[in-house]
Amino acid sequence: MPQIVAKTGNEAMAEAMRQINPDVVAAYPITPATEIVMIFSQFVADGLVDTEYVPVESEHSAMSATIAASAAGARAMTGTSSQGLALMYEMLPIASALRLPIVMPEVNRALSGPINIHNDHSDTFGARDFGWIQIFSENSQEAYDNMLQAVKIAEHPKVKLPAMVTTDGFIISHCLEKIEMHDDATAKEYIGKFPAYTKLLDIKNPVTLGALDLQNYYFEHKRQVAEAMKEAKRVILEVGRDYGKKFGREYGFFESYKLDDAEMAVVCLGSFAGSAKAVIDEYREKGIKIGLLKIRVYRPFPAEEIAAALAHLKAVAVVEKCDGFAAKGGPLYDEIRSCLYDQQKRPLVADYIVGLGGREVTHAHITEIFDELKETAASGKVKEPIQYKGVR
Amino acid sequence: MAKELGWKELPEGDELKAGTAAEFHTGDWRSKRPVKDDKTCINCMFCYIYCPDSAIIVKDGKMMGIDYNYCKGCGICENVCPVKPVKAIKMVNER
């Protein structure tokens, strides 16, 4: 029987890890993700999991040890945030190149500097091109469900890619919410046995892994990762549908909120969607047709699907917690505009960069964005394509 | 050289069967080659122990020569050769 429990985002992710029961966890604590591995290490100490816990001395080592464990044939996990993810950067593309289905909770936090511990998306956006699947969560329930599904997706024989599941630092990671958890037996059955594709410790069948790969083979290996990412799109939908059938909560690439009959919409990621939905309800009561598209799967990027979902709109506001410093809008704005390029009819798109370093995105900011969106839709012109909301 | 595989048939994840390095001749960029003097070599096996590339060929306890398919020409064998007054291994320029 599923249980209704109160869990913070970090607790929900730690509970998911307990139910996944990985063979190896190698981790180094970092705010605001510390609790995930801290709670999990308590599970290890209490004998609730069979995991070999490796308390490493840095995140670079955490990812290295996790890669090594996964290559040896173990179901291996770690967890991190911000600077920790940045310290892992060197190892991240190695995990995907070696096709190791590592699953990692990642709590989104601003990148230093200046040093900051609060939420934005600059850390995982910076790691978007490393061949890792990236799944964003709006709340603790999604964080929990995404963690379990990430295992199924990453370990699928057509995928075999590492996956990170994110929550927004403090906003989700430390916020107590009501979630529905599967009982342990159900979760265990759902997760299943680890299909070790790479088994370095199988001495009867010795292999070489990660050999020097120069002009004559590197390209082919990268082409394989590109293909696996494409396959991942199919598998993500399959796993999301199956999850819905089994547990009543279906997941896709993104969530559409009041989008079908909308004239304009907000595109966003993570916890901001919750605030935006509340304000959308207010506008809907006034007869203003605003909807929302919340991206759940950022890598692989579901370009055609997003384009199809947005094509009927007059105006779209991309609201993102990352700048990218490209002097032409944030990364999500880039990708949304790019995926709409092939549409015969496409909405106008404006970019709103918000919430850097945990700056609160208030009701007033959202109504400003919505009112400007209304103006754009009415006038057929984007007044100011790239804006910062909430900055002094 | 074996046929170079395309991405569809290439094993995934840069995984190879063990021991394939033997099929890949890595000694072709040497600038100096060690040459052994059969008459003065005392079969002490110093060169065998110190060679970083297992390029000293040994059979029945005798130093048989150098495997030029893998020797990189580092000169360690010449350096450790204890034969006096003239070493039994000498580095000469590759042509």
Count of individual beta strands of chain A: 17
Broad CATH class of chain B = Alpha Beta
Largest interface: A-B, 23 and 15 residues
Total individual domains of chain B: 1
Number of helices of chain B: 2
CATH architecture of the largest domain in chain A, please? 3-Layer(aba) Sandwich
Q: Which range best describes the helical content of chain A: under 10%, 10-25%, 25-40%, 40-55%, 55-70% or over 70%?
A: 40-55%
Spatial extent as radius of gyration of chain B: 17 Å
Largest sheet of chain A: 6 strands, mixed
| Percent strand of chain B | 15-25%
Derived from helix and strand composition plus strand pairing, the structural class of chain B reads alpha+beta
Q: Tell me the total number of β-strands of chain B.
A: 5
Taken in chain order, the helices and strands of chain B follow as: EEHEEHE
Query: How much helix, percentage-wise, in residues of chain B?
Result: 10-25%
Morphology call of chain B = elongated
- The top-level CATH class of the largest domain in chain A is Alpha Beta
Oligomerization category of the chains in this entry: heterodimer
CATH topology of chain B: Alpha-Beta Plaits
Would you give an account of this structure?
The complex is a heterodimer of chains A (392) and B (95). Chain A contains 13 helices and 17 strands. With 392 residues, chain A is of the alpha/beta class. Chain A folds into two domains: 245 residues, 3-Layer(aba) Sandwich (Rossmann fold); 136 residues, Rossmann fold, CATH 3.40.50. In chain A, the strands form four sheets. Chain A has a six-stranded mixed sheet with strand order 11-13-12-15-16-17, sandwiched between helices. The longest helix of chain A has 30 residues. The radius of gyration of chain A is 21 Å and the shape is globular. Chain B has one domain: Alpha-Beta Plaits, CATH 3.30.70.20. The radius of gyration of chain B is 17 Å and the shape is elongated. Chain B starts with 14 loop residues before the first strand and ends with a strand. Chains A and B meet through strand 10 and helix 9 of A and strand 1 of B. Strand 10 of chain A pairs antiparallel with strand 1 of chain B.
